[in-house]
């Protein structure tokens, strides 16, 4: 756990540095039309490097989002050089004297090409979840999980722009990053090991405050619930979520946040429901959910597909899901699954 937390802390620091000085050249659009920045690659390298260094005798098996294909082309070279410089600024602080070459950076990125599966130990990494939020100066998170024989047994979520205290309806909006980042009470690190509960501490300056155990809210009625969803409606249908919320009698407006910060907020009772209904053709990836999944379960919540079946991370890089994802405290979760059967039935 110590090296996983250290890895996420270091990667989060790199991301914060980049978000502060983000420029258009540092972003490319991938084949699926989603953006990727120097910070996505850089954070992936920093996490893999930190974990491999903590356990040099075993070759790391990691299921991670990014790969080096674009960076190995001539057009990708300037971006590779920028990533290498960024990574070395973090590496120099953690291991004085050590310097990575661009070729080493490429090879470390490709440590993330594991297929995962039902046996053995595999790290699961989303170096920046919510890249659209990251470039839009909103919320994002660095998400690291670990699979042991197909079960998520550890999760760490670094949330650099998330307030440690109450979260307002506009804390996920465009520009929230400028407003929030740098404040001493902003930046959260959620972590959990299976069977050990879920915890949160400040992302930076750990040691200033002891970790606090978190629990999902004890809410049983929709009227008291606050539901969370993606900012991007192309990632998750706002209208299905609104219909389900109506069915449950939810009155508060949705809290829109990018990334797995939504799982973190659910685990600490700041939001009560998280729903995600992607387009029917979209296949969810395990790195978008692994860390948040174990944190919410260990905080007493349930995370399932729309039919109420617990998420299964043992099937490789993707999740096989019925319609979407519903996460909530048990009593509300049961009501939401019933509402989904009515409002968003299986096609
Ligand atoms: N068309 C789509 N439908 C559903 N999810 C999508 C999508 N395109 C991208 N995503 C995923 O949605 C994630 C962000 O979720 P959220 O909306 O909760 O912030 C992205 O993670 P990355 O930002 O790591 O690529 C990406 O994996
Ligand atoms: Mg992405
Ligand atoms: Mg993601
Ligand atoms: Mg990502």
In words, what does this structure look like?
With 347 residues, this protein is α+β, with helices and mostly antiparallel strands. It folds into two domains: 2-214, 2-Layer Sandwich (Fructose-1,6-Bisphosphatase, Chain A, domain 1), CATH 3.30.540.10; 222-343, D-Maltodextrin-Binding Protein, domain 2 (3-Layer(aba) Sandwich), CATH 3.40.190.80. The protein has helices spanning 2-20, 38-54, 77-94, 102-109, 131-135, 176-180, 238-248, 261-267, 290-298, 330-343; strands spanning 27-29, 35-37, 62-64, 121-129, 141-148, 151-163, 186-193, 198-202, 212-214, 227-229, 255-256, 273-276, 302-305, 325-328. The protein has a seven-stranded mixed sheet, with helices on both faces. Helix 1 (2-20) runs antiparallel to helix 2 and helix 2 packs across helix 3. The chain is globular and about 60 Å long. The mean pLDDT is 94. Bound molecules: adenosine-3'-5'-diphosphate and magnesium ion (3 copies). One magnesium ion binds at residues 40, 65, 126, 128-129, 131.
């Amino acid at each position: 756990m110590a090296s996983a937390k250290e890895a996420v802390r270091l990667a989060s620091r790199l991301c914060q540095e980049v978000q502060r000085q983000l420029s258009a050249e540092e972003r490319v659009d991938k084949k699926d039309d989603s953006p990727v920045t120097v910070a996505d690659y850089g954070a992936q390298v920093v996490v893999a490097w930190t974990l491999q260094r903590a356990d040099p005798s075993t070759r790391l098996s990691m299921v991670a989002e990014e790969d080096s294909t674009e960076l190995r082309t001539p057009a990708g070279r300037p971006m590779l050089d920028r990533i290498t410089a960024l990574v070395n600024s973090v590496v120099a602080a953690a291991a004085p004297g050590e310097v990575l070459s661009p070729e080493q950076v490429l090879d470390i990125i490709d440590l993330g090409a594991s297929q995962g599966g039902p046996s053995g130990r595999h790290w699961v990494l989303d170096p920046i979840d919510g890249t659209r939020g990251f470039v839009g100066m909103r919320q994002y998170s660095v998400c690291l999980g670990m699979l042991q024989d197909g079960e998520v047994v550890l999760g760490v979520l670094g949330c650099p722009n998330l307030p440690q205290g109450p979260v307002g309806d506009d804390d996920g909006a465009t520009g929230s990053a400028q407003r929030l980042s740098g404040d001493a009470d902003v930046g959260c690190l959620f972590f959990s090991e299976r069977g050990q509960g879920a915890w949160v501490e400040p992302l930076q300056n750990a040691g200033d405050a002891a970790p606090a155990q978190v629990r999902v809210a004890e809410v049983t009625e929709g009227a008291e619930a606050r539901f969370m969803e993606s900012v991007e409606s192309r990632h998750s249908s706002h209208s299905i979520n609104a219909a389900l919320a109506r069915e449950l009698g939810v009155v508060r407006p949705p809290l829109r946040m990018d990334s797995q910060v939504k799982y973190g907020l659910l685990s600490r009772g700041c939001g009560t429901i998280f729903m995600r209904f992607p387009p029917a053709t979209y296949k969810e990836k395990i790195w978008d959910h692994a860390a948040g999944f174990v944190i919410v379960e260990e905080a007493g919540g349930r995370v399932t597909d729309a039919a109420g079946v617990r998420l299964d991370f043992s099937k490789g890089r993707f999740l096989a899901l019925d319609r979407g994802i519903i996460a909530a405290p048990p009593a509300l979760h049961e009501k939401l699954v019933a509402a989904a059967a009515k409002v968003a039935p299986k096609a």
